[in-house]
Amino acid sequence: MAINIELENNEQIISRISCCRKITNIEVVNSFLLNFFVCTTTTPVVGQIVDDYILTLTNKNIYLESIYYSPWEGIYSVMNTSKIPLKKVLSFDLYKDNKDECIIIKSNENKELKLIIKDDKSKEKVKEIKSYINKN
Fold first, then answer.
1. pTM of the prediction?
2. Which of 35, 82, 114, 121 lies in disulfide reach of 39, CB 3.0 to 4.6 Å?
3. CA geometry: angle at 95 spanning 125 and 25, to 5°?
4. DSSP code of residue 7
5. What is the edge-to-edge ordering of all strands in the sheet holding 89-97?
6. How far apart are CA 63 and CA 60, in angstroms?
7. What is the SS3 string spanning 31-81?
């Protein structure tokens, strides 16, 4: 996937991984109802749930790009990009949830982000990311 983030001055990409998050039943119901009552044949899918992400580690920040797939063409685009400065990251931990390997990122703003690692290539990179964050 192409890099869609704007880096700060002297910022370098260290690693990128594909990940996703677990969708709750409430999100599915809300999406269905929103599409059922709001969406027409002339408007795009309004309540699509975004669960695919690209996590990018740089020497200054962690970027989380929300990936949206067009319902007609299947082409992806970045819906939103969140930025977490490394100095605000309290912990970056790995854990196993049933058969899934997961990441949990905690920030000093009492926020917690849980992501599922999608592929084997990303699983190896997560260890590098964790090591880098723990050093800094």
1. 0.76
2. 35
3. 105
4. P
5. 76-85, 61-69, 52-58, 13-20, 112-117, 100-107, 89-97
6. 10
7. HHHHHHHHCCCCCCCCCCCCCEEEEEEECCEEEEEEEEECCCCCCEEEEEE
